[in-house]
# Entry
Amino acid sequence: PIRAAVVPNGLFGDNAVLQQGRRVPVWGTAAEGERVIVTFAGQKLEAVTKDGRWMVWLEPMQANATPQTLTISGANTLTFTNVLIGEVWLCSGQQNMERKRP
# Structure
């Protein structure tokens, strides 16, 4: 059968931070029917590609400043290092944007 590389979403890579206290989706693309395994922080999850896409959900984790390794494997294996668990904030706006404290 034809094999295609497992490719995670561009949000995942070395030096990433995953959100603490919530389920975290990890997703990407691969060949149809490809078995994809995601390993991180003692969790090992598996998905099978459907319509060229796969997704798994990591269970909630506590903040941790110890760098860990995120491994995604299928037809190929990708290893991302220095991945932390903490607060993830996405902000957009103007350059004069500030956070208001209650």
